[in-house]
Design goal:
heterodimer, A: mainly alpha, two-stranded antiparallel sheet, 2 strands, B: mainly alpha, ABC transporter involved in vitamin B12 uptake, BtuC, 2 domains
Chain lengths: 292, 356
Amino acid sequence: MDFFLQLLVNGVCIGLLYGISAMGFVMIFKASSVLNFAHGELLALGAFFFLSLVTWGKIPVAAAFLLTLVGCFLLGFVIEKFFLRPLIGEKLIFVIMLTVGLASMFKGMILLIWGGNLHTYPEFLPSALELQLGTIYIAPVYSATLIISVIFLVLFGLFFKKSSQGIFMRSVADNQKAALSLGVHVRRVFALSWAIAAMVACMSGIVLGIINGVNVHDLSAIGLKVFPVVILGGLDSIGGAIIGGIIIGLLETFTGGYLSPSLRDVVPYMVLVILLMVKPYGLFGLVEIERV
Amino acid sequence: MKKLSFHPCGNFRESYAQELTIFETWFGRVSMGVFLILLFGFAPFVLDRYFLYILNNIGILAIAAIGLNILIGYTGQISLGHGAFFGVGAYAGAILATRFGLPFYICIGAAGFITAMIGMIFGIPSGRLKGLYLTIATLAGQFIIEYVLIQWESLTKGTMGITLPEPGILGFTIAGDKSFFFVIFTCLVCMTWFAVNIMRSKYGRAFIAIRDNDRAAEGMGIPIFKYKLLSFAISSFYAGFAGALWAYYMVSITTEPFNLGLSVEFIAMVIIGGMGNIPGAIFGATFITILNELLRFATGELMNIGWVAGMGLNMAPLREFVFGLAIVLFILLEPKGLAELWRIVRSSFRLWPFSY
């Protein structure tokens, strides 16, 4: 029973990580329907910016965190401006392949600058976050993750529901032409959503880096793990991404714990294929009624 | 029908035969013939082993890229699992050759058919899914196939790999780059011929109709699901055939090369070469292979330059960066690929000196 509970807690913790890694991905898809294959590399870029600022620049953690967020915000603008904007209205495959190309560019760049080794951040989380519930132990990083992901979820919920920019973004996601004719600046919305998504991605990258250490290959693998998560949750639902993440996390830890560790990494994709056949728009996604 | 000597300066076709013809002028036909004679008559005897090795790789990859072009460029279904299908073909060929001792020419054909079956299984989601969702489904297919290849040890020997026997046809053994050159390029010519002709048939027209507008295609009575599956099958057949050839050429295979990176390289070949263009796939395969070799050469040279090595930089990732850059630049600057550039070059000769 203890084993089961520990697996359950681990699964939820890993799932939350997947969930917050997927949030940035969902934001981009929601606003501009771009499937971002470079998401894992964006995570890695954020994590490495933070690493350099903290360990090489000797900047205090809070300031470094803010600087990284701002840097990634700008990076998002740049990516949208130079790479994605010329492709508005182009065929799907070009957009997908562009993000694949970007992924390989970023990965090469990161490897050139930081190398492929595992880096770790210095310890900075307060030990008060360490939790011990009976026999179950929750590491401080996981409780910090929980807190951060709840904060970000609430912030984004408010942003999309209350702020004018958030409402613009939803309107563009819903119907680009209608939004355009009602005076929404669609290009600005695209740029903004990429900027915000890059920011969210780098935030998740930092959190992942605190937990697992910073390594390009691991982080870009998580960028691919995002796909089952978002399909499960529905490609355009941010809350769904978190729940999808938790489900995938549980699935992984239980398969790893009870069946076989090697099956662990493939199970999400098997579920993905079955799910796509049965319920293509996910648990919380918007159902577009279209016969194929 | 009388062949023209020169291209007309507009579209003056009067019959369907003219529309369907492959070589519009005798000049195109003759230059193709001359090219083939040069390729088979001179290339293997003039080039040294290293260049032959590159040419052979280009030939094998071009076969697979043609297959992917049928799926992506003509039918409009994006597949991220082509690298895995290539691997399935390689393993199918290797297992048939070692376990059952079947001869070379049966193995590569059978490997193609086995891969076509598996491709059809992963094409089933295309019955319900379109665009993004299908792409993700094939991505999952890539990971599942990779997992099966590594874990099904009783059949694939897992990470140990399989070593293939020396192939032979009609009593001749095929060994060395030169004899493989003839086998590979004969296969490439046949497969290209087959692909070009399938695109002129009823099936090819149905594929294009599905790509351009699937609802309209269905309205005109094309059974979409059947044709999508057929397209998956043909494209996987090409991948499997090329994979089996590759396995024979490499002599021993492991699961390592058949990863997502290979799938991405295949798509890059199709895009850089030109989507919906059979010769384009060959251009793309040539471009990517040569780019890879140049980058390997360049990184090797850079590592030997004193100050670069002294800076402690590892130049190997440069390859990854330039590869990504090439894809991005092609998509942004010339989305129709090398085939379009080639067409522009040819027509500027044709139209000279009055380009309008």
